[in-house]
Amino acid sequence: MMAAQELANGISHSGHMYAMTRAGRHLTPAGELQETFDGMEQVKFMKRIAEMPDLSQVIRTLPRIKKHLLNPQNMRCAINATPQKISDSATQLESFIKDVAENRKERKPVRTNIIKVPLDLLDDSGPSRKLIT
């Protein structure tokens, strides 16, 4: 609720930035994403969540978000620390990444079913197309 309020309060202070982001949303795909995550769409989204009486739907969505964000294969980390603390920080980071990898469920590979269908149903020896189900 605080994040939604801060975004709403920032509209008057950053109105020009919001207007530019909103105007640029139709120019490029990146502009559309910027509007979605940094523009008025984000303000409306956060306000809608803050006004929800029941957050169970949001809570059910968080593990799905975690699955994409905390993927050890795609994860990159950087540590800023003093030379005295870099060893401890690196150990903590390695432990965190190990925990993420251990808690990750392996997904079964999806097997596609490919069907070869002739273009001419009366002639099986002619050209055909492949359909994936």
TrEMBL record:
Keyword Hydrolase: yes
Any matching Pfam family: M16C_assoc
Species annotation: Ameca splendens
Molecular function in Gene Ontology: peptidase activity
Protein's UniProt name: Presequence protease, mitochondrial
Keyword flag Membrane: no
SUPFAM superfamilies given in the database record: LuxS/MPP-like metallohydrolase (SSF63411)
Membrane spanning residue stretches: none
Gene expressing this chain: PITRM1_3
GO BP term (any one): proteolysis
This protein's UniProt keywords: Hydrolase, Protease
Boundaries of every Peptidase M16C associated domain copy: 3-49
